[in-house]
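Input record, target 12 of the design panel.
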């Protein structure tokens, strides 16, 4: 679906293309959260994101 919408768009719309590429990343899965899930839960060690999440 995304590739179908991206192809017809002109290269002039760079902000739109960049915004759409950013949307390709699953919602709620940022780099920090990905590290927290892959590294934190698997390793069992507190990640920097986990330390910041603690109130």
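The sequence produced for target 12 reads:
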């Amino acid at each position: 679906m995304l590739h179908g919408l991206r192809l017809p768009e002109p290269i002039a719309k760079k902000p739109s293309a960049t915004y759409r590429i950013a949307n390709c990343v699953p919602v709620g899965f940022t780099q920090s959260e990905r590290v927290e899930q892959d590294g934190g839960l698997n390793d069992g060690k507190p990640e920097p994101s986990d330390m910041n999440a603690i109130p």
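The chain has one domain: 2-53.
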